[in-house]
Amino acid sequence: MRRLYEWVLSLAASRRALPALLVVTFAESMIFPIPPDVMLIPMCIARPERALRYALLMSIASVLGGIAGYGIGLWAWDHVGPWFFAHVPGFSETGFEHVRELYDAHNFVIVFAAGFTPIPYKLITISAGVFHIAFPMFVIASAVSRSARFFLVAGLLARFGAHAQVFIDKYFNWLAIGFVVLLVGGFWVLARV
Questions:
Q1: What own/partner pairs with CB < 8 Å and gap ≥ 24 does 47-53 have?
Q2: What is the pLDDT of residue 16?
Q3: Do residues 191 and 78 lie in contact, with contact meaning Cβ atoms separated by under 8 Å?
Q4: Which end of the chain is less crowded, N or C, counting CB atoms within 10 A of the terminal residue's CB?
Q5: Long-range contacts of 133-140 (CB under 8 A, 24+ apart)
Q6: DSSP category for residue 48
Q7: What is the pLDDT of residue 4?
Q8: What is the full DSSP assignment across 137-184?
C-alpha cells in the first residue's frame, strides 16, 4: 500500500500530472484505494493559478467514476461482488449490509457524506447501484459533495499554499466531519420549520 501511495504521489510531479490526476480521481470513485487529494495538493501548491481548474476537472472525473461504480453495482455485482470483498479495501459483506439499511432512511445524506468525507466513496457508488438508489439523486449528491470537497481543498491551497497543506493534512477528517454535521443539522432544522 505504501508503494502505491508513493507512486500516486510521484505522478503529481510528472509532466502528465493532470491526465494522471483525472485517471486516479475516476478510478478512486469505484475501486482505487488512494484518494486523489494526494496528487491535488502538490499540484495546487506548484501551480496555484490552476487550482480551481483542477478542482472542476476532478469533480467531473469523480462523478463519472461514481456513475461507473453505480453501473458496476447495477449490472455486474453478481459477478464482481466476491472479488471486491476479497481485494478492495473498504469493502466487507458486513459493511455492505449496513449500508443497505442506512440507504432506506438516508440515501441522499449517505451519498453526500461519502463523497465529501473519508468514508470510502467507492463503497457507496457501487452499493447505490446494487440497491437501486434513484439515479438522479445519486448524481446530484455526488456532484455536490465531490465538488465541495475538491473546491475546498483547491481553494485553500490556492489562497494559502504550503501552510494550507499542513493544516489540511492534519485536520482534514475533522474538517470534513464538521462540514457534514453542519449540513445534516441544517437539513434537520429545515425539516422542523
A1: 48/157, 48/158, 48/161, 49/158, 51/154, 51/155, 51/157, 51/158, 52/151, 52/154, 52/155, 52/158
A2: 85
A3: no
A4: C
A5: 133/103, 133/107, 134/107, 135/70, 137/107, 137/108, 137/111, 138/66, 138/70, 138/107, 138/111, 139/63, 139/66, 139/67, 140/108
A6: G
A7: 60
A8: HHHHHHHHHHHHHHHHHHHHHHHHTHHHHHHHHHHHHHHHHHHHHHHH
What does the pLDDT look like over 147-183, one tens digit per residue? 999 999 899 888 887 777 677 667 767 776 776 676 5
Answer for the pair 90, 99: CB distance below 8 angstroms, yes or no.
no
Instruction: Give the whole-angstrom CA distance, residue 103 versus residue 29.
Output: 18
pTM of the model as a whole: 0.78
Q: Please, is 64 exposed, middle or buried when counting C-beta atoms within 10 Å of its C-beta (0-12, 13-18, 19+)? A: middle
Q: Which three cell numbers stand for residue 156?
A: 485553500
Which residues of the chain are under the pLDDT cut of 50?
190-191, 193
CA–CA separation, 142 and 121 (whole Å): 9
